[in-house]
């Protein structure tokens, strides 16, 4: 017998626990046929306003899906009794363009209220960001539900630091059934977007506590980075993650081969033998990269928590429900 005090929780769970149907393409074909089209328009409009928003939106998929599955938990604002993921170590002062997802959600709520989850919007948006940056297009599986909670601690524990090395990243990705090849292909997202000086000063001036720079950085590239990010300078200044940060292409891998990776976690993919072969392959063959990237994004999008969910009305807050008042 459940103790009486647990009853409100049980009721809450019954109220929202709908067995999650399998994800599938064209999930909203009948219930919101314009959904994918409308999300793409919002991403496009925002890119015209600010090109970097594409990269920022793309990154949200990784940070949502690795922490308890692709459930929109990333998008929840903190509340007085829940510390969410936005202020976690990897996300604070770093993740951005949440308002682009809000805009897509508002648009869809205007057309088909209560139908399209924030978790799905994020998956569509991450794909659209790639397409609109000159990358591949693919069909996304949909039908996710939005989480009822979020965990700052889980995000802190899971999300990798820019200092991470390839062997750590291989092990981390394996926990999500993602291979070394998936790791390298998905890191190719860094073909677009920017990173902060805060994320690289250690490797410019004190790699692994040696008091020396990372020896894997090309000397001329390092001079440029030193100018961008002087010792003791503004950690919020940003630089491109590859030489063409607005184009989704395989330049990122060519840069890694030339010691021109921005992040330590990027450059180490070339330093380390098990991942180097894929960096070489993707640098040489753009189509191999695009194919592996799409496969990786689909696998990343398949991660699910199995927990009960809902279709949020506002991506930043869980829907209010009467049972809340009992608690
Ligand atoms: C392999 C492990 C990864 C690490 C350690 C990592 C780390 C980082 C870091 C440190 C930044 C710059 C943040 C800042 O300085 O504020 C960044 C940016 C970015 N990351 Fe990753 N990342 C990884 C994998 C991924 C994956 C799998 C994706 C997408 C599928 C992704 C997409 C992006 C994008 C698009 C940006 C640029 C965002 C912007 O310009 O706002 N990253 N990442
Ligand atoms: C990679 O990082 C892990 C964890 O931070 C560390 O234990 C390991 O020694 C590093 N490996 C190499 C080859 O530097
Ligand atoms: C990885 O695959 C195994 C075997 O198919 C499965 O049991 C496990 O739940 C998967 N893990 C994740 C995080 O998807
Ligand atoms: C470099 O890092 C080591 C270990 O973290 C630290 O003890 C040392 O003070 C740092 N040196 C500089 C110049 O910041
Ligand atoms: C970057 O800017 C934010 C917000 O203005 C500030 O709180 C933070 O301390 C800055 N971070 C760094 C590394 O300088």
Automatic annotation (TrEMBL):
<keyword id="KW-0106">Calcium</keyword>
<dbReference type="InterPro" id="IPR033905">
    <property type="entry name" value="Secretory_peroxidase"/>
</dbReference>
<keyword id="KW-1015">Disulfide bond</keyword>
<dbReference type="InterPro" id="IPR010255">
    <property type="entry name" value="Haem_peroxidase_sf"/>
</dbReference>
<feature type="binding site">
    <location>
        <position position="85"/>
    </location>
    <ligand>
        <name>Ca(2+) 1</name>
    </ligand>
</feature>
<keyword id="KW-0732">Signal</keyword>
<feature type="binding site">
    <location>
        <position position="73"/>
    </location>
    <ligand>
        <name>Ca(2+) 1</name>
    </ligand>
</feature>
<feature type="binding site">
    <location>
        <position position="244"/>
    </location>
    <ligand>
        <name>Ca(2+) 2</name>
    </ligand>
</feature>
<dbReference type="InterPro" id="IPR000823">
    <property type="entry name" value="Peroxidase_pln"/>
</dbReference>
<feature type="disulfide bond">
    <location>
        <begin position="197"/>
        <end position="229"/>
    </location>
</feature>
<keyword id="KW-0376">Hydrogen peroxide</keyword>
<keyword id="KW-0964">Secreted</keyword>
<feature type="binding site">
    <location>
        <position position="249"/>
    </location>
    <ligand>
        <name>Ca(2+) 2</name>
    </ligand>
</feature>
<feature type="site" description="Transition state stabilizer">
    <location>
        <position position="59"/>
    </location>
</feature>
<feature type="domain" description="Plant heme peroxidase family profile">
    <location>
        <begin position="22"/>
        <end position="319"/>
    </location>
</feature>
<keyword id="KW-0408">Iron</keyword>
<feature type="binding site">
    <location>
        <position position="69"/>
    </location>
    <ligand>
        <name>Ca(2+) 1</name>
    </ligand>
</feature>
<feature type="binding site">
    <location>
        <position position="160"/>
    </location>
    <ligand>
        <name>substrate</name>
    </ligand>
</feature>
<feature type="binding site">
    <location>
        <position position="242"/>
    </location>
    <ligand>
        <name>Ca(2+) 2</name>
    </ligand>
</feature>
<dbReference type="GO" id="GO:0140825">
    <property type="term" value="F:lactoperoxidase activity"/>
</dbReference>
<keyword id="KW-0325">Glycoprotein</keyword>
<comment type="function">
    <text>Removal of H(2)O(2), oxidation of toxic reductants, biosynthesis and degradation of lignin, suberization, auxin catabolism, response to environmental stresses such as wounding, pathogen attack and oxidative stress. These functions might be dependent on each isozyme/isoform in each plant tissue.</text>
</comment>
<feature type="disulfide bond">
    <location>
        <begin position="118"/>
        <end position="315"/>
    </location>
</feature>
<feature type="binding site" description="axial binding residue">
    <location>
        <position position="190"/>
    </location>
    <ligand>
        <name>heme b</name>
    </ligand>
</feature>
<feature type="disulfide bond">
    <location>
        <begin position="32"/>
        <end position="112"/>
    </location>
</feature>
<dbReference type="GO" id="GO:0020037">
    <property type="term" value="F:heme binding"/>
</dbReference>
<comment type="similarity">
    <text>Belongs to the peroxidase family. Classical plant (class III) peroxidase subfamily.</text>
</comment>
<dbReference type="InterPro" id="IPR019793">
    <property type="entry name" value="Peroxidases_heam-ligand_BS"/>
</dbReference>
<dbReference type="GO" id="GO:0006979">
    <property type="term" value="P:response to oxidative stress"/>
</dbReference>
<dbReference type="Pfam" id="PF00141">
    <property type="entry name" value="peroxidase"/>
</dbReference>
<feature type="binding site">
    <location>
        <position position="67"/>
    </location>
    <ligand>
        <name>Ca(2+) 1</name>
    </ligand>
</feature>
<protein>
    <recommendedName>
        <fullName>Peroxidase</fullName>
        <ecNumber>1.11.1.7</ecNumber>
    </recommendedName>
</protein>
<dbReference type="InterPro" id="IPR002016">
    <property type="entry name" value="Haem_peroxidase"/>
</dbReference>
<feature type="signal peptide">
    <location>
        <begin position="1"/>
        <end position="19"/>
    </location>
</feature>
<feature type="binding site">
    <location>
        <position position="71"/>
    </location>
    <ligand>
        <name>Ca(2+) 1</name>
    </ligand>
</feature>
<feature type="active site" description="Proton acceptor">
    <location>
        <position position="63"/>
    </location>
</feature>
<keyword id="KW-0575">Peroxidase</keyword>
<keyword id="KW-0560">Oxidoreductase</keyword>
<keyword id="KW-0479">Metal-binding</keyword>
<feature type="disulfide bond">
    <location>
        <begin position="65"/>
        <end position="70"/>
    </location>
</feature>
<comment type="similarity">
    <text>Belongs to the peroxidase family. Ascorbate peroxidase subfamily.</text>
</comment>
<keyword id="KW-0349">Heme</keyword>
